[in-house]
Specification:
Layout (H helix, E strand, L loop, with lengths): L7 E3 L20 E3 L6 E3 L21 E3 L1
Parallel strand pairs: 1-2, 3-4
């Protein structure tokens, strides 16, 4: 299957421990919903990222953000 034009990915409720680095190839991905237990957010190759969503403050388990 080819998911290169995927725009929304919802994983809430899934027991995801790590996303593959290939998720960075999803150029059209705009909404990634799995953030309830996220502890580390790595954004070091997100050159086009302008800002983070304001509701990131509700991610109480988030301990580290790497740019």
């Amino acid at each position: 299957m080819n998911f290169t034009h995927l725009r929304t990915l919802k994983l809430n409720g899934a027991s995801v421990k790590e996303l593959p680095s290939s998720i960075g190839k999803l150029k059209h991905l705009r909404h990634l919903d799995f953030l309830c237990n996220l502890q580390i957010l790595i954004l070091n190759k997100c050159r086009d990222l302008k800002c983070l969503a304001w509701n990131i403050r509700y991610m109480t388990n988030l301990h580290h953000i790497f740019f």
